[in-house]
Amino acid sequence: MSVQRICVLGLGYIGLPTASLLATKGYSVHGVDVTQRVVDTINQGAIHIVEPDLDVMVRAAVASGNLKAGLTPVEADLFIIAVPTPFKDEHVPDVSYVDSATDAIAPFVKEGDIVILESTSPVGTTERVAERLAAARPELQGKLSIAHCPERVLPGRILRELVDNDRVVGGIDRASTDAAAGFYETFVRGEVLRTTARTAEMCKLVENSFRDVNIAFANELSLICDDLGINVWELISLANRHPRVSILTPGPGVGGHCIAVDPWFVVHTAPTQAKLIRQARAINDGKTDWVIERVLEKANRFREPVVACLGLAYKPDVDDLRESPALRVYEELVERLGVERVLAVEPNLKTSDERPLTELDEALRRADVVVALVSHRPFRHVDPEILKAKVVIDTCGVFR
Ligand code: SAJ
């Protein structure tokens, strides 16, 4: 089976880098997105998201003629589904985008095609894709290879990690696993590890839950240390000198569209067993509330307080605001104190009418209370002398 034509469903943070990488490797790639603006932007060789070097790769892929975007799928040898899998109310996983993508490709699949689900998905979703395709195209049952291969790339390092990371591939049967793994082996430098679809699904959820639980441990420590008058940063750096201890970094909560979301898929599937995973989510979300209350308590000691929030993004040195705890802190403070009393400093974004930003120096000069929310590079060099005259709440250890 030789794959030449690839159809990628969803041209976001995973789909677009994947589609452009495959196009530069010589595959003929048709990318599909439901948003006309996204399709038009890509067809002009431009991008609609921020990721280092992605603009160069997309421009090259489109210029070579190997990458085209459209609103609907086309016939292909291999289909990659990379659409969002958010959750609904009560943290119930929402796989409706996967369902829609599956229904969209159903008329285009043919005998021998490979269908790969890359979206982070609750256990059983790959089987659901197979069942949906079988219902739409009963004559193809058993004649398609269907597998899950979860994306594992870190925003900010996507293009490198797409090639270098090991990949886990699990099919609905052995033949599906082998077909999908053979495809990844054509462009992945890391190892391609074979398993079942359900294990591959759980593997991705477990990776992000593991990180969430470990960050919750660090956040819990930060609260305990605050009560005991112990410097948590010093404590962690000392404890981490033990050869088998590696504590992560506390912060104002956990953001991004993955680590704050995926553990809920495990909790939803195993509500009685997943006690630690559920508690970690509560601790990490609760940390954001704790920061807000702590800032208000300090600010309210001033008659007309000015609070500077350093950082709005969900993690250091990115411009991504999705599920950002720093943004939640800022917005809640604006709500409670008034927009004129809260200054936002975000060196990775441009100021706008809906979100006015202040330069770092000006914010430090005007603020009574300085709240460090994200360890962006420019914040690491703030003069300690300036901070001496302020009330400082360093939630991420950037001034440590
Ligand atoms: N954070 C802390 N303390 C830490 C580390 C992180 O508070 O010590 C916070 C960050 O500030 C951020 C959040 O956690 O708010 C998540 O950041 P992250 O850098 O840990 O992860 P993401 O969400 O950018 O990417 C994760 C990665 N997963 C793992 O490292 C296990 C990535 O490999 C996945 O591909 C990605 O989720 C995804 O798409 O699922």
Features:
alpha/beta, Rossmann fold, 8-stranded mixed beta sheet, 14 helices, 42% helix, 400 residues, binds ligand SAJ, 2 domains
Structure, described:
The protein has two domains: 5-190, 3-Layer(aba) Sandwich (Rossmann fold); 236-394, Rossmann fold (3-Layer(aba) Sandwich). It is 42% helix and 13% strand. It has helices at residues 15-24, 36-43, 54-63, 96-105, 125-136, 158-164, 174-184, 197-228, 232-239, 262-269, 275-299, 325-337, 360-366, 384-388; strands spanning 5-9, 28-32, 67-70, 78-81, 114-117, 145-148, 167-171, 192-196, 307-310, 342-345, 369-372, 391-394. It has an eight-stranded mixed β-sheet with strand order 3-2-1-4-5-6-7-8, with helices on both faces. A four-stranded parallel β-sheet has the order 10-9-11-12, with helices on both faces. Helix 4 links the parallel strand 4 (78-81) and strand 5. The longest helix is centred in the middle third of the chain and has 32 residues, at 197-228. It is globular, with a radius of gyration of 23 Å.
List the domain count as a whole number: 2
Rg (C-alpha, Å): 23 Å
CATH superfamily annotation of the largest domain:
NAD(P)-binding Rossmann-like Domain
Q: Report the top-level CATH class of the largest domain.
A: Alpha Beta
**Strand count:** 12
How do the SSEs run, as a string of H and E? EHEHHEEHEHEHEHEHHHHEHEHEHE
Walk me through the topology:
Elements: E1 5-9, H1 15-24, E2 28-32, H2 36-43, H3 54-63, E3 67-70, E4 78-81, H4 96-105, E5 114-117, H5 125-136, E6 145-148, H6 158-164, E7 167-171, H7 174-184, E8 192-196, H8 197-228, H9 232-239, H10 262-269, H11 275-299, E9 307-310, H12 325-337, E10 342-345, H13 360-366, E11 369-372, H14 384-388, E12 391-394
Parallel strand pairs: 1-2, 1-4, 2-3, 4-5, 5-6, 7-8, 9-10, 9-11, 11-12
Antiparallel strand pairs: 6-7
The protein binds ligand SAJ.
